[in-house]
Amino acid sequence: MKKVLVVDDDALIVEIILDVLSELDVTVLCAYDGEQALQLVQDQAPDLVISDLVLPRLDGWQLCQRLRASPKTRDVRFVAMSAIHRPKSVDCNAFLPKPFDIDDLLATVERLV
Fold it and tell me: Which CATH architecture has domain 2-112?
């Protein structure tokens, strides 16, 4: 079964995404800051990370950069989310603007896992 890591410091957003992804055949992991997410990626090896860009401790930009810099995690697919930022030099596989459309979220996850 594929693993998806959802990273957001807003617990309500995490709950909404968990609920939406329950429709898919995936295991969902959760983190609430970038450092926790980085540790989960290293320990659990998810296939996809869906991360807000504005996070405490280690932001989404830095999280993606660290994943891409490591041979062990460089191929993990990364979806950036943000209400205020657009991806710039971050090597993400997709971008979801917040508030996100549930159909777009599902289609993005299905495409990337």
Answer: 3-Layer(aba) Sandwich (3.40)
